[in-house]
Amino acid sequence: xxxxRYHSYGGPEVLALEEIPAPVPKAGQVLIRAAAIAANxxxxxxxxxxxxxxxxxxxxxxxxxxxVVGTVEAVxxxxxxxxxxxxxxxxxxxxxxxxxxxxxxxxxxVPDGLDAGTASALPMxxxxxxxxxxxxxxxxxxxxxxxxxxxxxxxxxxxxxxALGAGTVIATASTAAKLDFARAQGADIGVNYTDExxxxxxxxxxxxxxxxxxxxxxxxxLRRSLDVLAPYGRLVTYGxxxxxxxxxxxxxxxxxxxxxxxxxxxxxxxDPERAARDLAELTECAAQGFLHAAVHAQLPLTETSExxxxxxxxxxxxxxLVAP
Length: 324
Fold this sequence. Notes:
- Residues 10-322 form the Enoyl reductase (ER) domain.
- It comes from Streptomyces caniferus.
- The protein is of the alpha/beta class.
- The protein folds into 2 domains: 2-115 and 294-322, Medium-chain alcohol dehydrogenases, catalytic domain (Quinone Oxidoreductase, Chain A, domain 1); 126-266, NAD(P)-binding Rossmann-like Domain (Rossmann fold, 3-Layer(aba) Sandwich).
- The protein has helices at residues 42-47, 116-121, 125-135, 154-163, 176-184, 198-205, 219-225, 264-270, 272-287, 304-313; strands at 2-6, 16-19, 29-38, 62-63, 66-75, 87-92, 99-103, 108-109, 143-146, 168-173, 189-192, 210-215, 229-237, 258-261, 295-300, 319-323.
- The strands form 3 sheets. Strands 3, 5, 6, 7, 8, 15 and 16 form a 7-stranded mixed beta sheet that branches.
- Helix 3 (125-135) crosses helix 4.
- The longest helix has 16 residues, at 272-287.
- The protein starts with a strand and ends with a strand.
- The mean pLDDT is 93.
């Protein structure tokens, strides 16, 4: 079968197509033939040798992560044979392959008729979107600022914030097209975060400050976001797309503001039953059409380098899929 890996750090050109034997599922695992693979932006940073912190450390040679949608072809020993033939989705550390092995506890059974883009969001992107809103303790009527609102996770955060009763959703993005896209997802106000005065624009839109800021950019965006919080406002950080995690002086929190982080891995470890309930809720929302992941482009596995170029251009609206 085919697999994408890289053996040295660098640009998209280091991504190589390899031929390897098909994997064999072990007990509690299934073998999935991939039909669609959703790419993750963090892999562009890892591929360049960036983000090599304890949080993201990955040795070479390195495979690409992703969210895989496909059909179960085989199961391992002591694994339910009824899964064979089922359409499933899962997050994988070695996703860009024709065939992948996945543990059954992390499988999502895809509802009939659900499009591949939305199905690909169920293992990771949608649970993160819901998780950051829950970490921010959103209550009905509150104002929410969503950074990177046109991204693979950000546009789902916008949808879920409105569904959960946010009063006003302010979206930030880097272009007019992205802001239009975020409004189409339900955002009430759009602000271009490349404008030097973006915090002033947010304060104009929400004179009393925003109740919740959700940030996956890190760096300067994270630091300046504190200034737009209302008293008792909450900032949730869940990524570092800028390449810098960022830091906040403790004294900045004395103005009745709080900062917390969110990690899906940590959420599964802390309360797997709650994570399972959240996933079931999101799957039902998707099946009913209340949650939809936009697909910017779909390319073949052989063009994975172009997928990374698109991700690094920051031009995509929603997800980018690969079709093996």
